[in-house]
Amino acid sequence: MLKLSLFLRLRLSLILVISTALIKTNNWSFLFIYILIALCWCIFLKTPIKILLKLLGAELILLSLMALPLGGEKAGFLMVRSLICLLIMNSFLLSVPKYHLSIALKGLPLPKKMQEIVILTGEYLEILLLEIQHMEISAKLRSLNGNSNWLRYISAAMIGSLYLRSLDRAQRVYDAMVIRGYNGTFPLEIDNNKSENFMLIILSIMVMSLTFSSYKIWIN
Amino acid sequence: MDKLDQKKSVIITVDNIKFDYEKQSILQGISFNLKAGERVALLGRTGAGKSTLLNNLIGLKFPQKGEIIIDGLKLEKKNIADIRKNIGFAFQNPEDQLFMPTILEDVMFGLLNYKIPASIAKEKARFLLDKFGLIAYENRSSHELSGGQKRLAALASILALEPNILILDEPTNGLDPAWRKKLAEILLNLPIKVILIASHDLNWVKKTTQRALILDQGQIQLDQSIISLFQQESVLESYGLPLDW
Amino acid sequence: MHIPDGFISPPVAVMTTVISAGVLTLSFSKMGKDVKAPVIALTTAFIFAAQMINFPVAGGTSGHLLGATLAVVILGDPWVATISISTVLLIQALLFADGGITALGANIFNMGIVGVWVSWLLVTTIQRLLGGAKKRLPLAAGITAAISTVSAAVSCSLLLIISGTAPLNLVLPAMTGTHILIGVGEGLITGSVLRYLLATNPDLLPDDESKLDKWLVPVIGTLLVAGVLSLLASSWPDGLEKVAENLGFIHLAENVRVEVPTPFADYQISGINEQIGTSISGVLGTLICFGLAFFMTKFISRKSA
Asked: Which of A47, A132, B76, C187 has the fewest Cβ atoms within 10 Å of its own Cβ atom?
């Protein structure tokens, strides 16, 4: 089967989400086309269906809490449209091994400075999340309980010490960069695959024109 | 001739450096030479000033008095870039220096900063990863590596710049005996002129270095061969370094 | 208050994306020269990670940090805080499907721009009102955090209203009402964390601010109270009962998030209310009061000092 690179899959997912989100409200026939596209995308990516369904189920509760009070056809449409976007994005996310997500961040079309911060953040997020987990486990092991004042105090202490540790680490990371010649610009080597870029452009034009036509038909 | 040879072979000269931090005197006049071919251990209890001394050697901090000469160049702000290229420094926690999305990019990071063409940088990085048995992980994130692998990846990211001097801060932290052995074997075979290792792991430095500097209360208290040092258990103990603990 | 995909109209999506991109570009050029990328990145990762910590608020409910005010205080620079909060939102949208891709601009606008700048505007003003001492910072930041959270929620409702997604009388009172309670939680967390930092590492926090001139104290105080009251008024008369019910849902949302690390939306659109006028005048009143308070503390008292 055709194998698409991580970046291409991310970019395609983003384009699909954007074009779905922008379909004209209450244009059900186009929404239906996108449901089909989203399902194909999900099958193509071999997303683990069970986890996906669990996630979307949880989403559905929240979306309906938001949309249902609006009532009527519009609420239903908003809900389904959002759900398709979530289906596309989650299909991508679930098809990628956890640690490769920070690699995927590299493929985002962002300005250089922003990209540097996004990549560094993605890289250290995992480490800090683990530290949080360890702190919480260690508190649990020492049977943390008490009134909410005490619990608040403990939570604040965890957040505070996480910050102090992050700050220390930031200094060391900066030093490690400087020692290897960092001078304010982040060297990033991104493989630019011409045939993939071409494919991306063609596909984006296709889906975007589909979305645009959802407006025209509505006018007619 | 003899004298010239001697002079030539000195790679690092530390001459009476003093360093204060927030009115506290951390380094109080430190002097020593490191010569080509030497592997030296920097020992001392926690808080003795080892980290501060290392930070001074790599120009992350500058001493208020005294001077440091590295490969003939005085360590100053204006030639810091040239000097840094010549020194590899491995942090205590390898996670601190693995910040790129993939291991390969981490190893390429320094090379690209020094404007080495990407294709050459990549080749060099892959060569090193291959040598360290990490080539299978080149496109993985550092989070997927074990502690020992992270240590080697960090080392590769430093060696990519082909430094003459290698400084390691607690390199065996968190490594099991097999990894400690592997790391020692790799270090002993590196084409590097001077290796300085700050460590608490006495048994490991005994196997990897020839000479030891003991730092205590901001001064070099002892400078002798590792073998003779290990025969003076009580001396070691008096500097907060009890053997076999 | 992460808006998902499909809930804002294309024009609003384009408009907010352009504004947010513009403000971010400006932030990169305006931020202090000596701010290091790893410091921004690690602080950002810290805020993201800190959001995972459950924080007990009251009566068995719990919330979690949003972080705009905390970011402003610890980074000491609203431009950098905007970059930081925007990065959190970008990563949440992309890697956790939390908040929509097309709504990213809107979410950055609400939390990264409105949330951050309201915080920056108010935190020193309130600190100076409370006497200016550094030990007053946690309280000042706590109050600010609550107000900034509600402001971001109001901005979020306004975008949904302009989008035509929800009618004003439905969304504004419900959003504001809910976020008053979330804001109290945010204030508690922000204040407690800063109290911890003040006790352990006071050097990291900004120094004492000068006291306000005596005659300014009642004026600024009145303005701020009026502003907060107007903000509360915008949610009127969405009864407490409704809000409590909403909070129940939020609690559910929290649980969803803890179990599966993904999307959740911490707000609802519900409740019916005809008093549109109160809402709009509430928002306007707030803006005017806070703006006046800020400019008076910034300019008048400096000149007279």
From this structure: B76
Q: pLDDT band at C255, cuts 50/70/90?
A: very low
Residues 6+ apart with CB under 8 A from B146: none
Give dist(CA A212, CA A202) in Å, integer: 15
- B110-139 pLDDT, tens per residue? 888 888 899 999 999 999 999 999 999 998
CA C274 to chain centre: 26
Q: Give the residue with greater pLDDT, C259 vs A161.
A: A161
Which pLDDT tens digit goes with each residue over A54-91? 888 877 877 777 676 666 777 888 888 999 999 999 99
**Are B177 and B146 a contacting pair, CB within 8 Å?**
no
Does residue B27 have a pLDDT over 80? yes
Cα torsion for B100, B105, B108, B110, to the nearest 10°? -10
pLDDT tier for residue A107 given thresholds of 50, 70 and 90: confident
Chain C's closest residue to A186, CA to CA, is C37
* Residue C267 predicted with pLDDT over 60: no
Question: Furthest-apart CA pair in chain B: how many Å?
Answer: 55
Closest partner residue to A176 (CB to CB) among B87, B91, B102 is B91
H or E stretch at B221: strand B219-225
Is residue C76 scored above 50 in pLDDT? yes
Greater confidence, C86 or A28? C86
Residues A81, C286: contact at Cβ < 8 Å? no
User: In the predicted model, what is the mean pLDDT of residues B93-115?
Assistant: 88
Shortest CA distance to C67 belongs to which of C45, C51, C55? C51
Q: Using the CB atoms, write b or e for C89-123: b if 16+ within 10 Å.
A: bbbbbbbbbbbbbbbbbbbbbbbbbbbbbbbbbbb
CB C151 within 8 A of CB C129: no
- Which tokens belong to A61? 């509760």
Query: CB–CB of B113 and A187 under 8 A?
Result: yes
CB A106 within 8 A of CB A119: yes
CB contact under 8 A, B141 and A103: yes
pLDDT, residue B208, reads 95
Domains of chain A, by residue range, sit at: 6-104+192-219, 110-179
How much is the average pLDDT of B198-217? Answer: 93
Chain B CB contacts of A181 below 8 Å: 81, 84-85, 110, 113-114, 161
Task: Specify whether the CB–CB gap between C247 and C293 falls below 8 A.
Answer: no
CA distances from C256 to A58, B101, B129, B167, C52 (A): 7, 29, 42, 48, 12
Task: Tell me the backbone φ, ψ of residue C48, rounded to 5 degrees.
Answer: -60, -50
Contact status of A184 with chain B (Cβ, < 8 Å): no
Q: How many angstroms separate the CA atoms of C239 and C272, rounded?
A: 10
Task: Specify the pLDDT at position B66.
Answer: 94
Averaged over B73-101, what is the pLDDT? 88
Which CB contacts under 8 angstroms, 24+ apart, belong to A205-208? A207/A15, A207/A16, A207/A19, A207/A37, A208/A15, A208/A19
How many angstroms separate the CA of residue C262 from the nearest CA in chain A? 8
- The structure tokens listed for C157 are 């409702």
Question: ipTM for the complex?
Answer: 0.90
Phi first, then psi: give them for residue C61, nearest 5 degrees.
-85, 155
pLDDT band at B152 (very low <50, low <70, confident <90, very high): very high
Cα–Cα distance, B32 to B15 (Å, whole number): 7
* Cα C196 to Cα B149: distance, rounded to the nearest angstrom: 37
Distance CA B220, CA C235 (A): 69
Bond preceding residue C237 cis, omega within 30 of 0: yes
